[in-house]
Amino acid sequence: MTATVEQQCEQERPLNIAILLNSFRSPFIAEIRESYVRSIGAVTPECRLSFFYPADCPGDFPDPDAFDLIVVGGSNTDPRKQHAWIQRVHHFIVSVVADYPGKKLCGICWGHQTISLVFGGQIVDMETPELGVTESKMTPAGRQFFVRGGQGGDGVVRLQQHHRRAVGVRPEGFHELLAGHQAFLSYNNAILTFQGHPEKDAETAKLRVKDAVRWFGTDLADKQAVEDLVWRMELQHDGPEIWERVLQWTREP
Predict the structure, then answer these.
(1) Which InterPro entries match (predicted)?
(2) Which contiguous run of DSSP H or E holds residue 146?
(3) Most CB contacts within 10 A, which of 28, 86, 219, 230?
(4) Residue 233: which residues within 8 A CB-CB, separation 6 or more?
(5) Cβ neighbours of residue 110 under 8 Å, at least 6 residues apart?
(6) Enclosing H/E stretch for 163
(7) Residue 159 to residues 42, 123, 132, 181, 235: CA-CA distances in angstroms?
(8) What pLDDT, on the 0 to 100 scale, is given for residue 147?
(9) Comparing 67 with 5, which gets the higher pLDDT?
């Protein structure tokens, strides 16, 4: 078999994707899982997804040899905490990078922050949390990455956001793809992270409307305030296009 045919077969082979769901005792864990199934399946139905729950099931991690992509997903816990399960996630990330050079890792929200911490970044509390679809401007490196993949022709990426902490200092060895430390790509093209949620649609986002009470002091009896929040969650976003680029990137060297 020639190299060209081998490469074509590799491109056509369904991807095996491991997804770490890091929410601790979340009542929405089934809905979070389904959001990944729905969003990735809409882009590439033949992808094979496997889910792991390191926060609730200690030691529940994938075998990196069995997967093309490992996604470190969101959580309801401060990534700066020293809980044993968080330390195990850190160890897993470090082990994958050290023992499986080039293995593709993708961090989302908490995963973005946690990978940043592991590689020397800093996490800060936000003055104003983000909830709903927001726009992030591409950096020059981001334009090269996203536009090359066919996304982001207008220079911005729109994603669902749900966080009150952010990366304050960029991790070492990473390009900034979206301004404000919203997305990073490692220099060796093996680790890609997003603060936003490409897996979330409005249905999933609206499960957390009540967080506006704690974060903004929103009165849920204020119909207009709730409608404004729901409107932001129902805005058009680039989740499908981002997944398309992520899956394309997974097959890149």
Answers:
(1) ChyE-like, Class_I_gatase-like, GATASE
(2) helix 140-148
(3) 86
(4) 131, 132, 133, 160, 202, 205, 206, 209
(5) 22, 72, 73, 74, 75, 77, 79
(6) strand 156-169
(7) 16, 20, 8, 14, 9
(8) 86
(9) 67
Cβ-proximal residues to 69 (8 Å cutoff; 6+ apart), any chain = 15, 16, 17, 18, 104, 105, 106, 246, 247, 250
pTM for the full model? 0.94
Q: What pLDDT score does 11 carry?
A: 64
Contact 103, 226 (CB under 8 A): no
> For the segment 88-114, what is each residue's pLDDT rounded down to a tens digit?
999 999 999 999 999 999 999 999 999
**Euclidean distance between CA atoms 69 and 243, whole angstroms:** 12
**What is the spatial distance between Cα 215 and Cα 127, in angstroms, rounded to a whole number?**
10
The CA distance from 58 to 67, in Å, is 20
Rounded to whole angstroms, what are the CA distances from 193 to 37, 125, 198? 19, 19, 11
Neighbours of 231 (CB within 10 A): 12
The answer to whether the CB of 115 falls within 8 A of the CB of 72 is yes
Contact in structure between 86 and 34 (CB atoms under 8 Å): no
**pLDDT band at 9, cuts 50/70/90?**
very low
Cα 108 to chain centroid distance, Å, stands at 2
| Residue 121 contacts residue 171 (beta carbons within 8 Å) | yes
Strands 174-178 and 183-186: antiparallel
CA–CA separation, 145 and 151 (whole Å): 9
The pLDDT score that the predictor gives to residue 128 is: 95
Handedness of CA 74, 75, 77, 80 (dihedral sign): negative
Task: pLDDT band for 51, please (50, 70, 90 cuts).
Answer: very high
